[in-house]
Every structure is written in C-alpha cells, then in structure tokens.
Amino acid sequence: MWITQDGLRESITDKNGTVWFFAYWHDWVSKVYTQRILFWDADKKVTGLLELKADQAVHLSKWKDKVIKLTNDKKYRQKFIRVLKFPIDNVEI
C-alpha cells in the first residue's frame, strides 16, 4: 500500500542543492512484512530503493530519519541505487 501522508510527500534539498523526492510503500510480500522507500533526484538520473523486511522494519515515525540519511549521505545512498520505472505508482519491484 502506498503511503501518501503530507509530511512524507515533501521533497528534500541536500547541501549541494540537489532536490530529492521519495515515495513510501508497505505491505506483506510472501508473508513477510516489507517497507520500501523509493527515491530519485529531480532529473531522475539517480534513483533507488531502500527495502526493509521483517525485523528491519521501522515505525513510520522513523522513516523520515532514513530519508534524511539517504539525502545527506552519498555513500549510504549508493548502497540502494536501482533503476526505477516511472510513473512511480506503477513501479514493479
């Protein structure tokens, strides 16, 4: 299920001026609770997916912490680089 809360739909600009966008999804996948944070820059040149499964899952209130780390920590973000298909609502993961 896609999460569309207002506070999570805001873009974030990093210290270099790059604008980042995020989409949030959670549901059961093969009987395993799964959370996904999809991200991309304004030009859609850098895209990726952070996936948290089972005991890695965090409360929704902690998702913003993950997003801030993805925005500000290039080395961390590089771990999750993945090609996304747009429109994002139809992304196949």
Question: What key phrases describe this protein's structure?
Answer:
alpha+beta, 5-stranded antiparallel sheet, 93 residues
Structure write-up:
The protein is of the alpha+beta class and about 90 residues long. The chain has one domain (about 1-90). Helices cover about 15% and strands about 35% of the residues. The protein is built from 2 helices and 5 strands, in the order βββββαα. The chain has helices spanning about 65-70, 75-80; strands spanning about 1-5, 10-15, 20-30, 30-40, 45-55. Strands 1, 2, 3, 4 and 5 form a 5-stranded antiparallel β-sheet that branches. A hairpin with a 5-residue loop joins β4 and β5 (about 45-55). The longest helix has 10 residues, at about 65-70. The model has no long low-confidence stretch (mean pLDDT about 90).
Oligomer: single chain
> Overall 3D geometry?
globular
**How many structural domains are formed by the residues?**
1
Biggest sheet record: 5 strands, antiparallel
The number of distinct β-strands equals 5
Relative helix content: 10-25%
N/C terminus separation: 13 Å
Structural class: alpha+beta
From the alpha carbons, calculate the radius of gyration and give it in angstroms.
13 Å
How much beta, percentage-wise? Answer: 25-35%
User: Ranges with pLDDT <50 over ≥5 residues?
Assistant: none
Q: What's the helix count?
A: 2
Compressed to H and E, one letter per element, the order equals EEEEEHH
Mean pLDDT: 88
